[in-house]
Design a protein that fits this description.
Largest sheet of chain A: 6 strands, mixed
Structural class of chain B: mainly alpha
Distance between the termini of chain A: 28 Å
Number of strands of chain A: 10
Number of strands of chain B: 4
Largest sheet of chain B: 4 strands, mixed
Shape of chain B: elongated
Strand content of chain A: 15-25%
Oligomer: heterodimer
Largest interface: A-B, 32 and 27 residues
Order of helices and strands of chain B: HHHEHEHEHEHHHHHHHHHH
Order of helices and strands of chain A: EEEHEEHEHHHEHEHEEHH
Strand order of the largest sheet of chain A: 6-7-8-3-9-10
Shape of chain A: globular
Radius of gyration of chain B: 30 Å
Number of helices of chain A: 9
Strand order of the largest sheet of chain B: 2-1-3-4
Helix content of chain A: 25-40%
Structural class of chain A: alpha/beta
Chain lengths: 271, 391
């Protein structure tokens, strides 16, 4: 179970263009520069055995939110809990219960897929044998058994993505967080991924709590049990797809999303 | 084993596998750096051997041999073989086709000599042609001997005591031990060994930091429940391990390198045995550790491998230029030299080659410096890791 409430994070961005001549060479001291509010107020509640979508346009603050969830960034305000454990206070315990496919999903090109997966397994505290057995099991599930002993150097986008996903799931986490997992995948790979996520959600697959960030409406419609719409650093709406359609009075989910995410341009939701 | 220690071992093992799979880079480092020292040693020995052979041949090339029967007589009495120089000797010397200096005697040599008119005798060599230059001194001394003999004969005929000509007797005494003299030739070896260690560490250090950033594998790596310092120590241990391996290989490569020394003199002067190799390692192992940490600290700030290579140039430059202080000063050590990384290592290794060795007190200073650099580097990388993962 993943609970996020009132999350906020801002960054200070140095403005390179403002300073000219020699002044630009001197490092800026103190808190000069422009403040960017990447996340202003995001809350979400993802329960076990459900797929929760984090839907928002590019730059809405999805990746920043997920990075805070992984303990890579410390939030300015708000609470993050995974299975009731506070992320800021006990990040390592949280990471042991979470499989995260982040925005960057680089593999080690000189290692085989199996070695890449087993490396993460052992870092998660598994024995090499256990990690290897799990790699084989997951490879069967994701139809990548033939890839296991190849070096990842020449892998296609889809093959890389599968390897990275298996690597994130090697320690059989009860919470799975995926940041735009379908980026760069073709139709077949996307469908396969959807099937796999549905299986992981089911009781047979372990009834995982899955959080899934995307900017693609169709994926949310097809896969997610509930949706949190994020825009400009805020969670502007949440509910199931039919609920959001009903709230906006639309039949097309894309129209509903635009209304929710860009209220100034079209429609302002009643408080 | 605690979980964090286990993580260190896991990272170390993975990074070593990764580094050793990079065959092409590893081979380049091995061939270019590790073999460099012995190859240079062999090249030097070849040069020295040919100079020795030249001296042993006792040959003098004279242009206009027929003009100087007196000189020829003198040279032959010194057991030299006198040969007529080739007609195009100037051209040949300039193009290094001919490696002996040429004595040029003019047509009127004998008559001018008889009249006491100091005939001009030229020794022709090319200072760009090092081997002809090297024997020019020998020929000059030989001609000096000829002149002295003429003087002595002339004075003796007039009844003057020879001692009047030499009011003082100059003798030189060389205090240098054979090894010290040899370091004039072998002095560049520590430099090559340090370069080998540097290049050994370079690629691995950049790959585990900037390379990891460039691949986008650092962010997922940090999503494992492992302390950042454990990740960094594992990475550092792998980089330092590769660098130390290169240090061991290059230190011991001089042992077989010695067998192929072609010059007996050099072989006698260059005393490098297992004991010296051990001393080299005592100096190099902490240096490899510090260098690895510093390179990683420089590279973690860089987004790409290429950017890191550019930044690492500073470290490369410092490591290659600092020992030059020692080379330019020709052996005059100042106490502060031991506090400067690279310079200290060069100084101590030079002492080993001179046959002096060094004590515990001498190694303690550079060792401390290396430990501080290592800890500083590791600490910095650990602090930067989270920030670096996301940019």
């Amino acid at each position: 179970m993943i609970e996020v409430s009132g999350l906020a994070k801002s960054f200070v961005v140095a403005e390179a263009g403002r300073r000219r001549g020699l002044a630009a060479l001197v490092p800026r001291r103190g808190r000069g520069g422009r403040v960017v509010h990447a996340v202003r107020d995001v809350s979400l509640h993802a329960v076990d055995g459900r797929i929760t979508g984090l839907l928002g346009p590019n730059g809405a603050g999805k990746t920043t939110t997920l990075r805070m969830l992984a303990g890579l960034l410390t939030p300015d305000a708000g609470q993050l809990r995974v299975d009731g454990i506070d992320v800021v206070a006990r990040p390592r315990e949280v990471l042991a219960r979470m499989g995260m496919l982040s925005d960057s999903r680089g593999l080690y090109p000189r290692l085989t897929a199996r070695e890449n997966i087993v490396y993460y397994g052992t870092l998660q505290g598994m024995t090499r044998d256990a990690a290897d057995a799990r790699a084989v099991e997951l490879a069967r599930m994701f139809a990548m058994t033939t890839l296991l002993d190849r070096r990842t150097d020449g892998f296609s986008q889809g093959e890389r993505m599968k390897t990275a996903l298996v690597r994130a799931l090697v320690h059989d986490p009860s919470n799975i967080v995926l940041d735009e997992p379908t980026n760069g995948l073709d139709v077949i790979a996307t469908r396969a991924l959807r099937e796999n996520l549905r299986w992981l959600r089911s009781a047979a697959g372990g009834g995982k709590c899955i959080v899934f960030s995307t900017h693609i409406m169709q994926e949310v419609e097809r896969l997610c049990d509930s949706v949190v719409v994020v825009a400009d650093g805020r969670a502007v709406a949440s509910g199931t797809v039919p609920e959001l359609l009903e709230r906006t009075g639309e039949t097309d989910f894309e129209e509903a999303f635009v209304k929710l995410a860009f209220p100034a341009e079209t429609w302002r939701p009643a408080a | 084993m605690t979980p964090q220690l286990r993580a260190v071992m896991t990272v170390l093992r993975k990074e070593l596998t990764d580094a050793l799979r990079d065959r092409r880079t590893l081979l380049t480092v091995l061939v270019s750096s590790v073999l460099m020292g012995p190859l240079i040693l062999v090249a030097i020995s070849g040069l020295v051997a040919s100079l020795e052979a030249q001296a042993e041949q006792r040959e003098v090339y004279v242009a206009g041999l027929a003009n100087a029967p007196t000189l020829r007589n003198f040279l032959e009495r010194q057991t030299y073989t006198v040969k007529e120089a080739p007609a195009d000797y100037e051209e040949a010397l300039r193009k290094s086709r001919f490696t002996d200096p040429v004595v040029v005697v003019h047509r009127d040599f004998e008559t001018e000599l008889a009249r006491g008119e100091s005939p001009v005798v030229e020794i022709v060599s090319d200072s760009a042609n090092q081997r002809s230059e090297a024997s020019a001194g020998r020929i000059e001394r030989l001609l000096g001997g000829f002149a002295r003999e003429r003087v002595v004969l002339n004075l003796a005929m007039r009844g003057v005591a020879v001692q009047l000509l030499e009011p003082i007797d100059v003798e030189s005494r060389d205090l240098a031990s054979p090894q010290t003299r040899a370091t004039r030739i072998t002095g560049m070896l520590p430099y090559f060994v340090m370069m080998a260690v540097l290049y050994g560490a370079l690629n691995a250090a950049l790959d585990t930091t900037a390379g990891e950033r460039e691949r986008g594998s650092l962010e997922p790596l940090l999503m494992n429940p492992v302390e950042r310092w454990a990740l960094v120590i594992g990475k550092w241990a792998a980089v330092a391990g590769v660098a130390m391996l290169i240090a061991v290989l290059s230190s011991f490569s001089f042992l077989p390198g010695q067998w192929v020394l072609r010059s007996d003199t050099l072989a006698a002067l260059f005393q490098y045995g297992p004991r010296e190799a051990f001393y080299f390692l005592v100096v190099l192992v902490p240096f490899a550790a510090a260098l690895s940490a510093v390179l990683m600290a420089v590279a973690i700030r860089c987004r790409t491998f290429k950017e890191a290579q550019a930044s690492a140039t500073i470290v490369l430059l410092a490591t290659s230029l600092l020992p030059l202080i020692n080379i330019f000063n020709l052996g005059s050590d100042a106490p502060w030299h031991l506090w400067i990384p690279a310079l200290a290592q060069n100084t101590l290794m030079m002492r080993v080659l001179k046959g002096e060795g060094f004590g515990v007190a001498d190694i303690l200073i550079p060792l401390t410096v290396c430990v501080v650099l290592t800890l500083g580097g590791i600490g910095f990388v650990a602090r930067m890791l989270r920030h670096a993962a996301m940019k």
